[in-house]
Amino acid sequence: MSVSENLQAIEKQMAEAADFSARDVADVNLVAVSKKQPDARIQEALDAGHRQYGENRVQEAQTRWAHRRAQYPDLRLHLIGPLQSNKAKDAVALFDVIETLDREKLARVLADEMEKQGRQLPCFIQVNTGEEDQKAGIAPRDVADFYAYAHGECGLHIQGLMCIPPVDESPGVHFALLRKYAHALGLDDLSMGMSGDFEKAIALGATYIRVGTGVFGERDYDL
Ligand SMILES: *Cc1c(COP(=O)(O)O)cnc(C)c1O
């Protein structure tokens, strides 16, 4: 299937999942994850009119997207991978949304950089719902304190919460937990669900889903 056919298929599945849980599909944003995808496929998605993309590395995203900015002014680029503090400047310059706010130092550095560049990017706090040692994200018990710091002290605009459930567990529990934490803080937006589980995520309240292979096909790790 072509990328535009994949996009249509995903959008249909999104609409069905939204219907099924009495939600409006207009409240669910498809972030097409373009990391490690050949340029021709990305161009196909752009030609099909898609404008929201996710990337997990700053440098890779720069080579792929910086030159396209002028041509696609309505592009929305989401950073969905871990951000090192020394890349914050480049990330603020390139991206529109930071989905992986995961520690105090980064919150401070991002706030300073946004101030400097005059760009207030909405951020999602990444929550380590599975409390996995190897995974980034704020531990569930620390989310409220971290929100107070990032929003209250640093002045960041926190749009919502994001999670990546453990690969070996049923994701539904994690999606439900993320929604619970978000509601406790009065946050409306939830970034959760990938190619394999976005329908479940929509049923549990996702407003942003991040779909890579489902849109573009398998990634090419030699890229
Ligand atoms: C790569 C990636 C995705 C997309 O995964 P697919 O299974 O290809 O849909 C979603 N979220 C994050 C954080 C990713 O790194």
Tell me what the structure shows.
The longest helix has 18 residues, at 3-20. The chain has an eight-stranded parallel beta sheet. The protein is an alpha/beta fold. The mean pLDDT is 97. The radius of gyration is 17 Å and the shape is globular. Helix 6 (143-153) links the parallel strand 5 (123-126) and strand 6. Helix 4 crosses helix 5. It is built from nine helices and eight strands. It has one domain (3-216): Alpha-Beta Barrel (TIM Barrel). The two termini are 21 Å apart. The structure holds pyridoxal-5'-phosphate. The site of pyridoxal-5'-phosphate (PLP) has 14 residues, from strand 8 and helix 9. Pyridoxal-5'-phosphate binds next to strand 8 and helix 9.
Overview features:
223 residues; 8 strands; TIM Barrel; 8-stranded parallel beta sheet; 9 helices; alpha/beta; binds pyridoxal-5'-phosphate
